[in-house]
C-alpha cells in the first residue's frame, strides 16, 4: 500500500499517453482502501510536507459568488510518485438550495515521468477521507491521551471525523456532537453509533460541548465573516481545537491567544488572509502540521497549553491518496478506460 507501483506495472495495464482511467465516486469508495490505509497515506503525505519534500503552490481559485470558491490544488510528492491536481468547489448553500453536497470536485492524476494524465477521478470521497485523517493525526500528536472529542457539524466531514477519531485516539471514552440542524446529529449517531464502541452524545448547546471535551473539531461552513459561535470565555487551558472550517466557527480571539497556532499550510492560510477570511488578521503561526508529524517542530510541551491547529486542506494529501486509489483501481480492474 505504501509503495506506489512503478511505471512499467502501470504501462502493462494502461496505454500511457493514449488512455486514462475514469473513476466514479463509487469506484473510489469500493476500490478497497481502508480508513487505516488512509491514515497511513495521509501521515506519509504530511511527513513529506513537514520535511519540505513536495511542491504545492497555494491554491488559486475563482469566486463567482460571495462565500463560494473553486480552488485549483496541484501537488507533487516525489516519494509517492504522486503528481496531479484537484479542482474543488465549495458552495455552502448547496445542501439547502439543491440538496447537493457543499464540496464536490475532480482530481486529475498524471504520470510523473511523461506528464501524461492517467486518471480522472471524483474527488469527493478522497476529500471526505483525508480531511478527518489530518485532523486525527494532528490530535494524536497534540493530545495523545484525550478521553473526550467534540464535533461541531455533523455533515459529510463531521460523520467521517467521528469514524476516524477513535482510530487515532484510543483513550477516547465519549464523543459529543452538535449541529445547527438536529436531524444531522441524529443521522450521524444512527449511522456511526453502531460502528464504534463509544457513546456519542448529542448536544444542542455548543457551550456544553466545549466545556465537556478536551479535543474539539469543527466542520460547518467557511465564510469570510466569522460566525464566532464558540465564545472565547468558554475555552480553557489545555484544550486542543482543530478547525476544518478555517476562521468561521470560533471567536477569532481564541486562535490569537492560543499558546500555539499551528496550520497545515502557512501559504494557504496567508492566501485566505489576503482574500479576507481573517478580518482580524492571521495569528502568528507556530509551525505547520506536517512539521509536527515529521517531528521537526514541537507540538504540545505542557498540558496547560491551549492549542489551535487549523487544517484547511492540502493537495499533497489528495495526490498521495489519489495515487493509491489509482494503483488499486488498475490492479482490480475498477473504473472505465477512456481514450485521451
Ligand atoms: N479543511 C479541509 O480540508 C476541508 C475539506 C472538505 C471540507 N471542508 C469544510 O468543512 C465544512 C463541512 O463540510 P461538509 O462537506 O461536511 O459539509 P456538510 O454540508 O455535509 O456538513 C456541514 C454541517 O455543518 C452544519 N452547520 C452549518 N453551520 C452550522 C453552525 N453554525 N453550527 C452548527 N452546525 C452548523 C450543517 O447543518 C451541516 O450538517 C465546510 O466548511 C467545508 O468547506 C474542509
Blueprint of the fold:
Layout (H helix, E strand, L loop, with lengths): L6 H5 L7 E5 L1 H6 L4 H16 L9 E3 L6 E9 L4 E9 L3 H5 L4 E8 L6 E6 L1 H19 L5 E5 L3 H13 L5 E5 L3 H11 L7 E3 L3 H7 L2 E4 L21 E4 L8 H6 L2 E4 L2 H9 L12 E2 H5 L13 E4 L4 H18 L3 E4 L1
Parallel strand pairs: 1-6, 7-8, 7-10, 8-9, 10-11, 11-14, 12-13, 12-14
Antiparallel strand pairs: 1-15, 2-3, 3-4, 4-5, 5-6
Helix pairs in contact: 3-5, 3-12, 5-6
Bound molecules: nicotinamide-adenine-dinucleotide.
Description:
- By secondary structure, this protein is α/β, with parallel strands linked by helices.
- The protein has two domains: 144 residues, ornithine cyclodeaminase, domain 1; 183 residues, Rossmann fold (3-Layer(aba) Sandwich), CATH 3.40.50.
- Helices cover 35% and strands 22% of the residues.
- The strands form two sheets. The protein has an eight-stranded parallel beta sheet, with helices on both faces. The chain has a seven-stranded mixed beta sheet with strand order 2-3-4-5-6-1-15.
- Bound molecules: nicotinamide-adenine-dinucleotide.
- The site of nicotinamide-adenine-dinucleotide has 29 residues, from helix 5 and helix 6.
